[in-house]
Amino acid sequence: MRLSTKGEYASRAMLELSLHHEEKPLHIRDISKAQDIPERFLEQILLQLKRAGYLRSRKGPNGGYYLSKPPAEINVAEVIRVMDGPLAPIDCVSVTAHEVCPHESSCGLKGLWKEVRDAVAKIMETATFEELAERTRAARAGRRRGA
Amino acid sequence: MRLSTKGEYASRAMLELSLHHEEKPLHIRDISKAQDIPERFLEQILLQLKRAGYLRSRKGPNGGYYLSKPPAEINVAEVIRVMDGPLAPIDCVSVTAHEVCPHESSCGLKGLWKEVRDAVAKIMETATFEELAERTRAARAGRRRGA
DNA sequence: CAATAGTCGACTAACTCAATCGACTTAGTG
DNA sequence: CACTAAGTCGATTGAGTTAGTCGACTATTG
Ligand code: FES
Ligand code: FES
User: Fold this and answer.
1) Does B95 touch chain A if contact means CB atoms closer than 8 Å?
2) pTM of the shown model
3) What is the structure's pLDDT at A142?
4) Which chain A residue's Cα is nearest to B107?
5) Would residue A112 count as lying in a domain?
6) Does residue B105 lie in a domain region?
7) How confident is the model at residue B36 (pLDDT cuts 50, 70, 90)?
8) What is the CATH number of the domain that holds A17?
């Protein structure tokens, strides 16, 4: 039930972009530094996210990546699905890539997997990057005040 | 967020064993046939489950595997953990294999991953094999009546 | 002792993952 | 218009994991 590094990096990158939304585009290098992601690997991730329609980019000096819509309209489930495919633990309960099991009609496990899928989907679909950015800002402010 | 085949097979095997609990031991071949799992692969899985203490076995003719305790006392989370390791999507929110992230204190994502972990854990820890066996029997009975 | 059934460790082929590279295209700057 | 700073794209790689196999061994029963 592990999330791939790619999925994790993608979430972190999107979060970073959300934190700087409505400023200048961020270039790969800066995101890479801020979030500690190998630059060349991040390049691929951002490209994939762009092809999926979540990011836009500008070339040349002062270029970089930026969100194609406000962070409030993007949730974590979407970006994970772009990077890692369906959220479901096994295919027979996937909404996006359903496939049938042989013993499906008499399988006592299917219901359980479905519960898991639904729970995960609900949490990730509810979490927008707007909200995550807000949490991050709060955590950082708290840290500055404290310690 | 995918479950490995090994985890899936292990669940199915445990379910099969639960359905026949308190009868004779089941041998690998029968479980393999009933649940459509490659025999030689299943062998490994059962062995692992035995080493973890969930199964006992008897050699020789009339031998086979059987549960070491009643199905009501075994939940799915346990067996998945034996086969696939921690349930958490990433290590910093794992209870069983916690590890720290670099930017942990100012990370807006950690809370989310934790929610996911907790939700998955709750569902899987609540589901006992007793209950799953019951669901399976119900589904089969229903199927016999219907169609 | 022959047949049955689990035990153990090693092995492998295929695949996936994380990462890297080189060559190319586009955009801004002086 | 040349130079340079960026993103774009496809290919490739190396490490690691997964799913599955194999052969030799040990214990049990009849
Ligand atoms: S796992 Fe798909 S139906 Fe049982
Ligand atoms: S992901 Fe572990 S702290 Fe952010």
Assistant:
1) no
2) 0.94
3) 81
4) A136
5) no
6) no
7) very high
8) 1.10.10.10
